[in-house]
Amino acid sequence: MSKIVDVDQRRLELARATANVIARRGVAGASMREVAAEAGWTTGTLAHYFTNKRELLAFTLENSLEQRRDKRAERTDLESTDPLRAMLSVALPADDEGRLHWTVTVAFAAHAASDDQLQRVQRDAYRSFRSHLVALLLEDAAITLDGAIIEAERLIALVDGIALQALFDPETWPPERQYDALEAGLVAQATAVRA
Fold it and tell me: What is the pLDDT at residue 113?
């Protein structure tokens, strides 16, 4: 009797294997053979789910971004008293999943410079993140739409800066310091908006 395969689940497993390979070897080192070995499958099996490396890479990046969006939504729902703070804090590489996501994101950022499809995926993810932040900022009656856009971009730059430092210097930037730096940036942001 043949076994029923959940295609979506297999694709997600392969995306996770790809992310793990990228974290160790970079995008260039994420060959179909390496990914198949990481997943415990053959390259032939991998070919049933992705036609080529480019398709696998795009799916991996999209999946990594989707997981972070889901986690932000969960955290924002749980911490409804301050959804802006919750959304930004979950964007930091303060746990294993966050570090893996940021490692993949940084690896893809360099690769996306010469790949229009990957560039669109990352651009759209940033635009979506900015839109959510703008919506949260607009809940404060003291800010205009233009002001909310500017503040959202500043907060994204803050999170990106903290995340990059934490990714490359985790001993100096443990989770507590990441959260403290984010908090200082949020306090400065709130003060600037009220001024």
Answer: 84
